[in-house]
Specification:
By secondary structure, the chain is an alpha+beta fold. It has four helices and twelve strands. Helix content is about 15%, strand content about 30%. A hairpin with a 2-residue loop joins strand 1 and strand 2. The N terminus is likely disordered.
């Protein structure tokens, strides 16, 4: 086993990164060029990289929010960090491009929400990534790893992110999926665009304008909880950039965010004008495409400018993931 222990990098030691174009899409495991948000990856030292990031202002999914003032989506930064980590694992950690990276757990925290307000960005965005891995004694392959990231806008340290992942070859992933299901897993392309007879939540109630971006349906409100079906549109190119045999982690995170917004506004029955600035998740099992997924959250009493909502995801009464979403009101975006 090899474990990397790395020193902190000072800003002056970080090499310059380019912003003229995005990286080759296969390095970020994306099919569409429009879904690539990394512009450049440069080595800081062995097992550490810095990456330039593109934050689009008119993206179908990441720009579709009703909260005002407008701010860069925290999940855009998380996705950019995920892509930077994938690209860096190929360029600096020796992980082959065809390797599957299975997320076990992650935490993403925005420290400076005001810096995300659109129109007053303090500088070009970049993400610094350190890789820590365990290698097999038999063949030297990485089987498990952790990445730790720091997100910057100019000199402002905006957010931190860590993620634990399992690295599998394609055939190993197939074996794992078959062992868990007992049958081959279907692909998202085998389903219709609208998954089953589920009535979606009204977009405004989950902070959206475009119905394509709503991933919840048939909400139920009780005295202490809010629950809903997780029912994303398979024709949403941001959530399903390519074929999947399960609901991807980022789709589940979006479901948790939307349920948190629905929960925060459930007492008044109106949309909650809050921003998600923190996510923590642990994934126990794959979210199967052909079995209903239910998300349940405890109703938050409110009365604070910052609070957290815990969301449980289950299939066939078995918990598959637990996520915590932290939301703040607009005063944090204004910088108050």
């Amino acid at each position: 086993m090899t474990t990397q222990v790395l020193d902190e990098v000072t800003p002056s030691a970080v090499p310059a990164v380019g912003y003229g174009r995005t990286i080759e899409r296969s390095l970020a495991h994306r099919s569409a060029i429009s879904e690539v948000f990394v512009t450049d990856v440069q080595s800081i030292r062995p097992m550490a990289v810095t990456a330039g990031i593109h934050l689009p202002l008119t993206h179908l999914y990441y720009s579709d929010h009703t909260q005002r003032p407008s701010a860069h989506d925290a999940l855009l930064l998380l996705e950019a960090g995920r892509q930077a980590a994938i690209a860096g694992s190929h360029t600096n950690a020796g992980v082959p491009r065809e390797t599957c990276a299975i997320v076990d757990a992650f935490e993403f925290t925005v420290h400076a929400p005001h810096a995300l307000r659109i129109g007053r960005e303090p500088g070009p965005p970049r993400i610094d990534t350190d890789f820590y891995g365990k290698t097999s004694r038999r063949n030297g392959r990485y089987r498990k790893g952790r990445l730790e990231q720091r997100v910057y806008l100019g000199d402002v340290h905006v957010a931190d992110h860590w993620m634990d992942v399992l690295f599998l070859r394609a055939e190993e992933n197939e074996i794992l999926r078959h062992a868990q299901r007992g049958t081959p897993a279907p692909l998202s392309s085998q389903f219709s665009a609208v998954p089953g007879p589920v009535t979606p939540v009204a977009p405004a109630l989950v902070g959206r304008q475009n119905p394509l971006n709503v991933v919840l349906g048939e909400p139920e409100f009780t005295a202490g909880t809010v629950s809903a079906r997780v029912a994303p549109r398979f024709d949403n190119p941001a959530l399903f950039d390519h074929d999947y045999d399960h609901l991807p982690a980022m789709t589940l995170v979006e479901a948790a965010r939307q349920l948190a917004l629905l929960t925060a506004g459930s007492a008044s029955g109106t949309p909650a004008p809050v921003y998600a600035v923190g996510f923590e998740a642990t994934f126990h099992r794959f979210a199967e495409l052909d079995v209903p997924v239910t998300a349940t959250a405890h109703r938050d009493p409110g009365g604070s400018t910052r609070h957290t909502i815990r969301v449980h995801l289950s299939q066939q009464e078995q918990e598959i993931a637990v996520l915590t979403v932290t939301v703040v009101d607009a005063s944090h975006i204004h910088g108050a």
